[in-house]
Amino acid sequence: MRHAAPMLAGVLLLAGAVAAQAPVERRAPQHAQTQHPEAPESNEDTPVTTLRVESRLVNVAVNVVDETGAPVPGLKREDFEVAENEVPQRIAFFERESTTPLSIVMAIDASESVLRNERLERDAARHFVRTLLRSQDELDLMDFADTVREVVPFTNQTQRIEQGLGELQHGDATALYDAIYLASQRLAATRVDDGRRRVLMLITDGNDTAKHTVYSEALEQAQRAGAMVYSLIVVPVWADAGRNTGGEHALIQMANDTGGKYYFVQDPKDLEPAFAQVSDDLRTQYVVGYYAPQQVRQDALRSIQIRLKDPALAARYKLRYRTGYYAQTQ
Asked: What average pLDDT does the segment 6-29 reach?
């Protein structure tokens, strides 16, 4: 794999340049160190002015559920309290049953071990797209096996997405962490001025065999993008001895760290109910926003704490949200 600057989403192949709607192969850098993107080579003949603006408003999607896992509606701004690195912050933005736009990357594991009943899996994904996507939302479709391909770039056109679901390309390997890394970079490039929520949905068995990007690099990219990672973990049909439980646990931890969720899928028929649960989860979120303190060092991972003020409510309900973020300078 060739070296590339981490700030790039990937290397676009010639086919992608010729036909914008054709699938585009994307590649993660060989060493995906993301602390400081490399500056592009300067062109002495073309002066360049760089404007860097820090986005200080931190919006956090929050799911509140009871002991049965059912969403809890009707909470108000004054029911919540938020802190950064355990320092209390003032809530500047609050929304119930969030209607803020969604940017979603759906990344499908196209290795032979996962795509067992392609028709059922494709139909379930199509139904999810039709029921969830609203006029203000957008979805990017990727598949990953030996490589990561962007099959359909961000669009709101369900017909184009459905067409892309019929163009998945199978392979033998599974570049799972490359897919998370690159999908997160695509999400990081989406608009933030409208309070947009960023979602990465994975359909995979959790087994990364490509061994390019490592877990920590993939997680950092997701956190930098502010992406909630939802994993539909496809359990192999063979005995438990054939399962990659380490890979499954990694996806579970990533979901916990990013405020997403995970679901086990033991039969292709279970995919549609799992998609429906993701849709319900996104529709019933609260959004809590606050302004990040200015004095905190840039490019450091900052921890977020959100709680219910009332001890009785805090004892009854469980909150799920991303636990940290990186300050963004653009």
From this structure: 46
